[in-house]
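Fresh eyes needed here. Kindly weigh in on this sequence plus structure tokens:
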Amino acid sequence: MNTNLTLAQKDYAHFLPAISGFYATFIGKQRREEYVDPARIPNHIGTMEGMNWLNKQKGLFQYKWSLYSAGHADLDVTKDCPKEDMIRDRDRDNTWLLGDSGGFQIAKGIWEGDWKDVNCPKASKKRVLVVDWMEEYMDYGMMLDIPTFTATDPKAAAATGIFTHADAVNATHINARYYLANRRGNFKVLNVLQGANHADADDWYDQFKEYCDPKQYPSNHFDGWAMGGQNMCDIHLALKRIIALRFDGLLEKGLHDVMHFLGTSKLEWAALLTDVQRAVRKYHNENFMITFDCASPFLATANGQIYCSTELPDRKKWVYRMTPGIDDKTLHTDTTPYGDAFVREGCYHTFENSPISNGLTAADICAYGPTDTNKNGKIGKTSWDSFSYMLQMGHNVWTHLNAVQEANRQYDAGIIPAMLIREVFDQTAFRDVVNDIFATDDKDKADMINDDYQRYLDSIIGTRGYTGKKLTNSTTYFNKLFDVA
């Protein structure tokens, strides 16, 4: 069981846990008060810092890289905020944090304002807060983009003034220019590429690539890329874009070393993105680093699910398997090891422990007995208290991280998911296609190779169930990512 996941990372694409505000609150507030009774914290964890993977000395497991969203944060950097100590007071020398800009909050209509009006007070205030927050706490941060899907929700469109692709483009230009003019250089900026289809994605790139161009902005150009919209889920389009970046001089060592794929959870993409990272490092930029994030370990727990197994069969679908966790008030005094109780209760036939779960009992999770009242003074339906969620989130984070690394280890050992190899007529491996694309110094040839394999590349399922140009409804997202027993 790996506890130092930083050392186990090797040369793989970097998964970034998208830290939830709920989780960070436990870490931060426990530093200032007894937010959780110390007697409630299991002995093998010790203190709450045992749950903090960013704490190199005290974390029960360690992992250097993570993401935190401005959409979840208290953006007022002048105000003390104990619940965010995990972020604000982290060890900057031994951790690396990417700040999401909050574009999702705009797309959902939560951050209101006419974003295409440069003088809108609400939008202007939020823009200032986001940049100041990133300056204070982030290593890298995304430019505050307006996702084009904002326009597809009438309520969000009305709340933000974004009704068309052009509106999203124009509003994002306002934000980009603010970043150029006002950032002080304490964090590096990723230029976010959006677009709901190929045509819109191409238009977006053509309009925004200048912000990363050191010829146009020699002292304050942006420092890398974030793939959103169709770019993050359609590998044929993503490769097309990376080819363009390379030959446009916008993927240069020391200037544009990081590329982030937003909201990417599929286990096969952990290996796929490693292939891309390795090819770019080999043939163009040895410092190139791909990162990708998701909030699945936290969202799963919120939905009552716990990761129990990672399944990596050769030439088949790879999955993080999760099921509903044990939730039974009659187990509130049961000292059976959690994994054993999980199997005994029929949740699933196996349970893979993490450093967090390896030491838990059934009673640590099923904290409330039949007559116990919750913090609101009522007898609830669940046996879980709030710390039960925290414990399972910690387990899920380690399991997701370890699954991503184990997928890469198995991939390197010759275990290949069905998605990354085509065995019709002749064998086509994704890693070979990517290597051929970047081995050539001729852009036309690189594009030709990418297009020659488009039919195969379009078959690779991406985030939210997207496959190439064929889009499926986002409600299929969970079932595409996970097998639920």
About this structure: The chain is about 35% helix and 15% strand. Confidence is low (pLDDT under 50) at residues 470-485.
